[in-house]
């Protein structure tokens, strides 16, 4: 693994809000007859009671903690701190830091948002994080050096690449037990599951290939060619193509799932590591370590149509998560998370997290 710089200290910022206050003006001037005075006093009392009542009865003055939480959170694994940073998507602030296993890398969140599964490379286990309590509730033993994780669309199965065992562990998320161990290529790094849930694609960095697992039988049914040292893999939503990030050749291979052949090779830059599809499948986002960029590939033309710089060389953009409007990328060398607006392709926030951030996932 490359040597990494330690990140700076997290800076906390506090803000003070102001509350509206109701004021009444004092009556001035000469004395008024008794009846008009009584009328004025009663009117003032009615206004005061009405104002106070409306203030007390306002139930939506501030969103509750549960409402804020349902708006979404981003989870980042910090490989050298053995922690997970939990970030509020609205404020871009770290709201919790959770101790995880040793060497946390890949992370995946269940469709209901209740649990996150974390691959701990150094302890050969998958930790299960309860997102409601921000606590690890269980750790499941898998193969050696687990790295990549991916859930089936229904959240019922988790696929874990074990780089030191040359296999993939299949975990039943209902029982949290390993139900199958599938031999694949050499040094598998990452895995992606098709949107129909029928296939899992595994990038084998040591054998320059992609293994295709039939999720019904938990067996490899096909081996696809890739470039040198494939480390990232993504499937288009229609299931027609697989995009593979090849670290050594600095290119992304586009493979037809129908023919099993490479149909395009897209140059992106030195040190390509991760590739992730947008929800609509129209764009692929690629982390390129060398220049500190995120490249945007148009899946129609299969060309780079945009580039976002997240920092100078050494920032090391590493893993990517994409929502309908935002791209999140871990900056391993800088100890930060970059937040990119998909429309403007501008970095809108940079969040300080832990040491050597690796994986990233967004709660639904």
Please supply descriptive tags for the structure shown above.
364 residues; four-stranded antiparallel β-sheet; 8% helix; disordered N terminus
User: What is the CA-CA span between the terminal residues?
Assistant: 32 Å
Uncertain spans:
1-71
Counting DSSP E segments of at least 2 residues, the number of strands comes to 28
> What amount of the residues lies in strands?
over 45%
Radius of gyration of CA atoms, rounded to a whole number: 26 Å
Helical content (DSSP H or I, runs of 4+): under 10%
What summary fits the major beta sheet? Answer: 4 strands, antiparallel
Provide the residue-averaged pLDDT: 85
Strand order of the largest sheet: 3-2-1-28
**Structural shape:** globular
H/E series: HHEEEEEEEEEEEEEEEEEEEEEEEEEEEE
In terms of structural class, how would the helical and strand content be classed? mainly beta
Individual helix count: 2
Walkthrough of the structure:
This protein has two helices and 28 strands. It is 8% helix and 48% strand. The longest helix is centred in the first third of the chain and has 23 residues, at 34-56.
Topology (elements, then pairings):
Blueprint: H1 34-56, H2 65-70, E1 73-78, E2 83-88, E3 94-99, E4 104-109, E5 115-120, E6 125-130, E7 135-141, E8 146-151, E9 157-162, E10 167-172, E11 177-183, E12 188-193, E13 199-204, E14 209-214, E15 219-225, E16 230-235, E17 241-246, E18 251-256, E19 262-267, E20 272-277, E21 283-288, E22 293-298, E23 303-309, E24 317-322, E25 326-331, E26 336-341, E27 346-352, E28 357-362
Antiparallel strand pairs: 1-2, 1-28, 2-3, 4-5, 5-6, 6-7, 8-9, 9-10, 10-11, 12-13, 13-14, 14-15, 16-17, 17-18, 18-19, 20-21, 21-22, 22-23, 24-25, 25-26, 26-27
């Amino acid at each position: 693994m490359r040597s990494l710089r330690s990140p700076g200290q997290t800076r906390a910022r506090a803000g003070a809000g102001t509350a509206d206050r109701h004021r009444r003006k004092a009556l001035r001037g000469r004395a008024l007859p008794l009846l008009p005075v009584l009328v004025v006093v009663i009117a003032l009392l009615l206004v005061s009671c009405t104002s106070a009542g409306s203030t007390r009865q306002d139930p939506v003055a501030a969103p509750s903690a549960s409402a804020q939480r349902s708006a979404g959170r981003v989870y980042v694994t910090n490989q050298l701190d053995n922690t997970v940073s939990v970030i509020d998507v609205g404020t871009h602030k770290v709201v919790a830091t959770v101790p995880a296993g040793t060497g946390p890398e890949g992370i995946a969140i269940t469709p209901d948002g209740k649990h996150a599964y974390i691959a701990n490379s150094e302890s050969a286990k998958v930790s299960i994080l309860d997102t409601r309590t921000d606590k690890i509730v269980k750790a499941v033993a898998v193969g050696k050096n687990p790295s990549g994780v991916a859930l089936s669309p229904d959240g019922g199965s988790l696929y874990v690449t074990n780089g030191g065992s040359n296999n993939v562990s299949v975990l039943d998320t209902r029982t949290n037990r390993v139900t199958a161990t599938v031999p694949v290529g050499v040094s598998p790094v990452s895995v992606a599951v098709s949107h129909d849930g029928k296939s899992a694609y595994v990038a084998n960095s040591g054998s320059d290939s992609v293994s295709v697992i039939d999720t019904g039988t938990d067996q490899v049914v096909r081996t696809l060619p890739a470039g040198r040292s494939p480390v990232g893999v993504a499937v288009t939503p229609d299931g027609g193509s697989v995009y593979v990030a090849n670290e050594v050749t600095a290119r992304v291979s586009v493979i037809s799932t129908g023919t099993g052949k490479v149909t395009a090779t897209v140059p992106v830059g030195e040190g390509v590591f991760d590739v992730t599809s947008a929800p609509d499948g129209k764009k692929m986002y690629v982390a390129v370590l060398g220049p500190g960029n995120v490249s945007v590939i148009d899946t129609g033309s299969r060309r780079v149509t945009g580039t976002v710089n997240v920092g100078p060389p050494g920032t090391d953009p590493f893993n990517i998560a994409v929502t309908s409007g935002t791209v999140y990328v871990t900056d391993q060398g800088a100890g930060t998370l970059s937040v990119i607006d998909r429309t403007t392709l501008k970095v809108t926030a940079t969040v300080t997290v832990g040491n050597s951030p690796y994986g990233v996932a967004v709660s639904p």
